[in-house]
Amino acid sequence: MLLAAAGCTPPTGPTDFQIVSGFRVDPTFNAFTGPCEVRYTLAEPAVVQIRITQRQPDGSVALVRQITEERRETAGSRTAAWRGVGPNGLFAPQGEYTVELYARLDGSDRTEEWALTTIMFRS
Question: Which end of the chain has a smaller Cβ tally under 10 Å, C or N?
Answer without folding.
Answer: C
